[in-house]
Amino acid sequence: MNKEVNVDALFLGPKSENRVFYKEMMEYAITEHMHWRSGFHPEDSALVTPRAQHQPDFRDTLYRTEGILRDLSSRLKNKSVPWFSPRYLGHMNADTFMVSHLAYVMTMLYNQNNCAVEASPVTTDLELEAGEDLCRMFGFDVSKSWGHITSGGTVANYEGLWVARNLKSMPLAIARHEGAKDLVAGMTEHQLLNMKPTDVLDLTDELKKRGMFEEVRELSVRGAGVEPGKLGKLLVPRSKHYSWLKAMDLLGLGQENIVQLDVDGNYRTDVQKMRETTLRLMEEGTPILGMVSVVGTTEEGSVDAVHEVLKLREECEEKFGSSFFIHVDAAYGGYVRSMFLDENDQFMEYDALVATYRESEIVPEGVVWPKRDVYDAFKAMSEVDSITVDPHKVGYIQYSAGAITMKDKRIVDLISYHAAYVFEEAGEDSGDEHSVMLGSSIMEGSKAGAAAAAVWAAHRLVPLNITGYGHVIGRGIVTADWFASKLATAEPFVIQGRSFEVRPLMHPDFHMVNFTFKEIGNDSLADHNSLNQRIYELCSYASGRAYSKDFLTSSTSLSVEEYGDTPCAYTSLRGFTDEEWQKEGSVYILRAAIMTPFLRDEMRFSQYWSNLRDIFTQILTEIVDEENKKAMSHSAA
């Protein structure tokens, strides 16, 4: 049975509160490595002699090394963003686990390269174990699924589209091969391009039995290529990450084959419009290469209705005999699924989940989380084809550590390569199910085994369920709820006779809170955008040293080019006319990912909010003073 973690013991802490333990373990990691070196074939003589170590150029080299490191430390301390501090509420960053730092440093010294097992005999296993952890968290059958660590969500998204592309083209390749085309006899090209992903993988099994899988695979898009647009459209929400545009470019599928789906007032994919678009494409006979749902949009933290996408695919299969690949981009929100799993990693029913939150004090009375549709979306993730997730976001693990998981590991055969100089097949009697060459089955080549060790270590200490990550992530969710509620009810800020009101964009799906300030009585959207942009400049690294900032945040613009007229609902609530929206075409938003685990205490948060109001007052005063000076300067001129 898992023991519940003590969250405060996981981090170095905003004031380095756990410094003693951290230093002890860091010294242990380095000392153990030095013992390993000195103990390897002790009969070998030392190759760096005391005489050499006392030479002037030797000492000079060490002094210069020290000087470089001191310079680096100065630069890092002077200009880095303090992700660890509750004063930072911006991007998807926060303090990270000590165990991950220590595991990374410990493993880094051994310089493991997870491209090939012979270069990473330890960390290849750790990476695949971490992949299994993530597959289990998403509800995949671990014996049939596949997951591994990437450099980030961008590469993971590339791999998701890569497998979708190759899968889509395999039936066409089968139909071209003389020895295999009987498997799809009588099927039209339209039918070949609209098969269920599982049916295509079943055909690849038959090809392997016949010993012609590699031959047929070379007739697919990876070998013979395919004409532009042949494989159909990729449907993505307007809230998509820009990596999907890059992926369509890099994989030769063409950005013109992206169909953007409108989002609703909660910045989730609009289910009704998604249905209309999909069914129209089906009726036109246009294949759908894949459908992307986002669990944790980059700008709003919104959670798409994954369950509705699955229902839509089933409807298309029944009505049109046509199917498509479903990928969930959960780079931001993927780890939140751990909050829905009990101590045995089983997905809990809604009422039992809420009751457990109350009993464990993960989500207190007065905070309603999760919303029922958010719950349904996370539950449905177990039925999709592939999922992107970033341990270096809500996994609280340092960069760089993204990940991709696939429900059916047979799909990896469609992208795998084998280079004799790097990759060796594991012997049949090796007894090690993890003995694979990662480099032959993924997009990247050389990759740090230390990153895999960092993820693996975090998963060993912090279970991917309600007893572990549930407590860590829950702290941020509760704090975000409190923060959004304070913004929604905050009294105006009165500065030199002018009043400013702050309000959230919406109540968050988990812990991204967007908000804006508006001067009461000023109904110019252009002035509103300028005000919030100036607030951002005064609350970000953009204008100088982070040390000089009392509060740090991030920002974004919700424009008509990216979101259509969806943001108009918010601007209307803030008192701006439709004409103002049409004239400006965008609204500037302040953006805060409330990931810090250190404000989950009502008294502490109350004091934090009081201090934050003072900071906002100071910032608004500075802006008003700037405007007054400009006005005086103009009048004098």
Automatic annotation (TrEMBL):
<feature type="domain" description="L-tyrosine decarboxylase C-terminal">
    <location>
        <begin position="489"/>
        <end position="617"/>
    </location>
</feature>
<dbReference type="GO" id="GO:0016831">
    <property type="term" value="F:carboxy-lyase activity"/>
</dbReference>
<keyword id="KW-0663">Pyridoxal phosphate</keyword>
<dbReference type="InterPro" id="IPR049373">
    <property type="entry name" value="TyrDC_C"/>
</dbReference>
<dbReference type="InterPro" id="IPR002129">
    <property type="entry name" value="PyrdxlP-dep_de-COase"/>
</dbReference>
<dbReference type="InterPro" id="IPR015424">
    <property type="entry name" value="PyrdxlP-dep_Trfase"/>
</dbReference>
<dbReference type="GO" id="GO:0019752">
    <property type="term" value="P:carboxylic acid metabolic process"/>
</dbReference>
<dbReference type="Pfam" id="PF21391">
    <property type="entry name" value="tyr_de_CO2_C"/>
</dbReference>
<dbReference type="GO" id="GO:0030170">
    <property type="term" value="F:pyridoxal phosphate binding"/>
</dbReference>
<feature type="modified residue" description="N6-(pyridoxal phosphate)lysine">
    <location>
        <position position="393"/>
    </location>
</feature>
<dbReference type="InterPro" id="IPR015421">
    <property type="entry name" value="PyrdxlP-dep_Trfase_major"/>
</dbReference>
<keyword id="KW-0456">Lyase</keyword>
<dbReference type="InterPro" id="IPR021115">
    <property type="entry name" value="Pyridoxal-P_BS"/>
</dbReference>
<dbReference type="Pfam" id="PF00282">
    <property type="entry name" value="Pyridoxal_deC"/>
</dbReference>
<dbReference type="InterPro" id="IPR050477">
    <property type="entry name" value="GrpII_AminoAcid_Decarb"/>
</dbReference>
<protein>
    <submittedName>
        <fullName>Decarboxylase, putative</fullName>
    </submittedName>
</protein>
